[in-house]
Design goal:
It contains 18 helices and ten strands. The protein has 343 residues and is of the alpha/beta class. Strand 1 (12-15), helix 2 (22-38) and strand 2 (43-46) form a beta-alpha-beta unit.
Length: 343
Amino acid sequence: MHRPLAAAGIDVRMIAQQSETRLAKLGVACGSLLASVAGSADVLITDMCTAGPLLAVWPAFVRERPVVIRLRADPWQTDDNERRRSRLSRLRPNGRRALRFFYERADALVPVSDFLAQRIRDETGIDGPKIETIREPIDLERFAPVADRAAIKEKLGLNYEHILCIAFNFHYEDKVRGLEHFLPVLHALVEKHRDVAVAIAGDGPLHGGFLRDNERWLKHPRLIATGFVAGVEQIYQCSDVCAHFSFFDAAPRALVEAWACGLPVIVNDHPALTENLRDNEIGCVIDGVSDEALEVFERVIYSPELRAKMGANARAFAEKHHRRDHIGEQYRRLFERLLARGS
């Protein structure tokens, strides 16, 4: 992603938010504030999309450097979820006005999905060329199909003929509610088919509550909550199909990772999940917990020809739309346009 920018001689400072914890957000914001004051980059880009951390880019506004805000999550739903999760969060003022303040002053808003682009328009009234969708880049060498799936199954202790994987981050209530809603159909799948296992990989602050609240389903020996898995690509590489269920998402990276590994995906009918999902080409959509949903799982799992066709389409989709150099070229054109406007 950085090669096209370096070739063009564009110096970019990235202020990234990797952790979901409040302490980490505060640390990133304070460190980034100093960096944005002292730095001399041509363009400042940040993916900190909530109002508090966005204070880190304020000096860049003052110094009239181009500021690009990249949105990987829905900041309005994120704000709502954080308010419900913490009493302290409920006491702070609503961040919607502050978000609009920063978004109006940014030189460009870069959502990673068309769903997020529409959310920006709906929530702020901002429209036009200031909003440009640029998808997430993916490491296509790390996330790739493998020949020896059995070796990975052995390594992870998942020695089952068929595996349906779910890679999940347990940070937001609405996201976890989506997974919980579909646990009954996953349970019905493993109850009916002894050669199928479901592996739910992931961790987060809501993981413990998820395990406690759903013990009745998760006590099944082939409905497995693995917790955190180092090298998450291995979960995809040993699986037949990937599922992702959520009522909170903007552009789930898990879908792209699964497609890059050559897996079809099965999702619930949420616009952020179905945006790029051409039904029966790179995955399938289920409407709810029903016999029809169970039949979709069975059709994909027990049809190797269909899985192979959808998996090949999925890998091709990831290579076309999420290749790092391709994403880097899009950013290069954006930054050059912003710099030319200010010269």
